[in-house]
């Protein structure tokens, strides 16, 4: 087990290096540096600023310094747009917000999705099943950027129940719509996967045996069927994390929750490359970490997999 | 097997039993799938709107209708009398013309993007699977590494750095999803490689790249077609996502994502049609692609036979 984790962590190093170097080179090749503006600066001033940010060093040295800074101190350097703020400060401000509603949305999606899938599978071909399948097909074509305006239309403009945006320190009224908008499509996917895998398990021989020896429906479901049926769901959770973080960009933008996605879009519009890079690399790290957790979880549930 | 009739020794011509190819079989099964056929028809209508729309529109997508400009919430609603079939947007431009234009761009992104992804992924996966050994190992390890990169963020980074051109968007969206394709194709190639006809081709001295192109890839076509159909809606979703953020196609060009974003932001003024029409096109088209993809999978999946 330990060996597996170490091996996976070692394998993550080249991934991160590729990501860092690629985004660094990309940023470096951008036409118009971070300090070029409508009113050109005198060359001496420009040279001074570039010296301050070490932009006049040779390229390999710059990359090396950046990598060392990120690895040893988790330091992404200063923001190019906001002279008094570092990338770390910007991330530290937005990340807790994203993490809060992201985690809630994740839990909601997993719990509701599994419940929906299980209900559908246990009542196969009943109206409940059709209802669940209908929801999951519908949610497939309603991505978060479509859900968000529809929710605002219903709950803010027509019913007037919920505020249309803002964060307000994480009060629940402000969190309801972001969580719903972010979790719907995952809930649907999880429900679909759960349904088909549970159906497959319920038709297998060991379930028939359990039924034959007179176990109750509840005992069959919770003690025998659920664990193997969860496996495909768990392997889906790995990519889910990335999609969730990506989706948070839309949520942040539409509901102005002030999360990390908003910082990313703002930096993209302002050409604040260092912030963009920092966020991209941070999300790369989290992706790798999350895939690792999912793999470990998978091996823990499935006794057939040996690490 | 043969189209030519064989003359029997006694002189009368026997009509040979006509064989059914895999593709004929698949077409028969596909046509039996009602949802898929209806979807194909509806998708055809959407494409028709994209192609013929400019001739039907009374206004161009850049023209501003000054007569409705002051009071768009009431005067700008969809009506046939002033030629704004879908109403106008908040700048007084005809929404029908804009939706037609957005449909063209979105469909194009979907198709060009998945063509790029499928071509690249197929060639990469087929090469890795066919060559095998250490090359295969390295190539697939590289895919593993690339898979855990947050692509949406890298794509936005690319668009910001190199400027938001439509072609960069096409290529970037396509390059996001060749990885999955290459994995699928590699797995299939490994199985095909040991078939007798490949051995036979090798024995008569056919070159390796010819074997890959002439013998391996045609046999992968079923998988490729299914995957490509399911890829198109994903491409459209990705493009819409980026356009929704305001980082995609630029004015006066537009796409479904950009139109939905505009419609969503003007919702509080009561111009619901601005969200409704692009959204309806978007949802209907995605539905069609999903159903057609499902239908193709059922029709072409060899497991069902």
Keywords:
heterodimer; A: 307 residues; mainly alpha; flat; B: 305 residues; MetI-like fold; two-stranded antiparallel sheet; 70% helix; elongated
Give a structural overview.
The complex is a heterodimer of chains A (307) and B (305). Chain A contains 11 helices and no strands. Chain A is mainly α. The radius of gyration of chain A is 24 Å and the shape is flat. In chain B, strands 1-2 form a two-stranded antiparallel sheet. Chain B has one domain: MetI-like fold (Orthogonal Bundle). Chain B has 12 helices and 2 strands, in the order ββαααααααααααα. The model of chain B is unreliable at 1-8 (pLDDT under 50). Chain B has helices at 22-32, 34-56, 72-75, 95-131, 133-147, 151-162, 166-176, 178-193, 196-203, 208-244, 256-265, 273-300, and strands spanning 6-7, 13-14. The radius of gyration of chain B is 25 Å and the shape is elongated. In chain B, α2 crosses α4 (95-131). The interface between A and B is large, with 47 and 40 residues.
């Amino acid at each position: 087990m330990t060996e597996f984790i170490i091996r996976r962590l070692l394998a993550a190093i080249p991934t991160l290096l590729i990501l860092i170097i690629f985004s660094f080179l990309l940023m470096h090749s951008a036409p118009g540096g971070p300090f070029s503006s409508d009113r050109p600066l005198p060359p001496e001033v420009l040279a001074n600023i570039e010296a301050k940010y070490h932009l006049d060093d040779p390229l390999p040295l710059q990359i090396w310094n950046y990598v060392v800074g990120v690895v040893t101190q988790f330091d992404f350097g200063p923001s190019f747009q906001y002279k008094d703020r570092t990338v770390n400060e910007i991330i530290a401000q937005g990340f807790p917000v994203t993490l809060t509603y992201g985690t809630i949305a994740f839990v909601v999606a997993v719990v509701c999705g599994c419940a929906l899938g299980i209900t559908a599978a246990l009542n196969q071909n009943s109206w409940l099943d059709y209802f669940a399948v209908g929801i999951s097909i519908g949610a497939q074509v309603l991505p978060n950027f479509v859900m968000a305006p529809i929710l605002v239309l219903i709950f803010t403009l027509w019913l007037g129940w919920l505020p249309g945006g803002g964060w307000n320190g994480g009060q629940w009224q402000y969190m309801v719509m972001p969580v719903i908008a972010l979790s719907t499509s995952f809930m649907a996917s999880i429900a679909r996967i759960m349904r088909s895998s549970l159906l497959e398990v319920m038709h297998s021989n060991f379930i028939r045996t359990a039924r034959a020896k007179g176990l109750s429906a509840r005992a069959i479901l919770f003690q025998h069927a659920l664990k193997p049926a969860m496996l495909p769901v768990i392997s889906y959770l790995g990519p889910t994390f990335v999609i969730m973080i990506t989706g948070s960009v839309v949520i942040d933008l539409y509901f102005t929750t002030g999360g990390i996605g908003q910082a990313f879009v703002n930096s993209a519009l302002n050409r604040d490359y260092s912030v963009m890079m920092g966020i991209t690399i941070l999300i790369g790290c989290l992706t790798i970490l999350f895939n690792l957790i999912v793999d470990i979880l998978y091996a823990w549930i499935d006794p057939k997999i040996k690490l | 097997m043969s189209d030519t009739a064989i003359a029997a020794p006694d002189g009368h011509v026997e009509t040979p039993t006509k064989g059914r190819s895999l593709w004929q079989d698949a077409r028969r099964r596909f046509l039996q799938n009602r949802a898929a056929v209806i979807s194909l028809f509806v998708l055809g209508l959407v494409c028709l709107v994209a192609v013929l729309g400019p001739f039907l529109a009374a206004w161009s997508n850049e023209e501003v209708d000054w007569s409705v400009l002051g009071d768009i919430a009431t005067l700008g609603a969809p009506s046939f009398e002033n030629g704004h079939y879908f109403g106008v947007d908040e700048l007084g431009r005809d929404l029908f013309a804009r939706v037609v234009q957005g449909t063209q761009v979105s469909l194009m992104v979907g198709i060009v993007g998945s063509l790029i992804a499928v071509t690249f992924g197929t060639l990469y996966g087929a090469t890795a699977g066919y060559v095998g050994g250490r090359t295969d190992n390295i190539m697939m390890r590289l895919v593993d590494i690339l898979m855990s990169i947050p692509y949406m963020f890298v794509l936005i980074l690319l668009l910001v750095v190199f400027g938001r051109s439509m072609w960069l968007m096409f290529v970037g969206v396509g390059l996001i999803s060749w990885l999955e394709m290459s994995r699928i194709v590699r797995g299939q190639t490994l199985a095909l490689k040991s078939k007798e006809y490949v051995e036979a081709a090798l024995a008569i001295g056919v070159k390796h790249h010819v074997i890959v192109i002439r013998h391996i890839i045609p046999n992968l076509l079923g998988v490729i077609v299914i995957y490509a159909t399911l890829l198109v809606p994903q491409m459209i979703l990705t493009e819409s996502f980026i356009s929704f953020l305001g980082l995609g196609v630029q004015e006066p060009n537009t796409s479904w994502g950009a139109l939905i974003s505009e419609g969503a932001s003007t919702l509080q003024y009561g111009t619901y049609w601005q969200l409704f029409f692009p959204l309806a096109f978007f949802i209907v088209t995605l539905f069609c692609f999903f159903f057609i993809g499902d239908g193709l999978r059922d029709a072409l999946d060899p497991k069902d036979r």
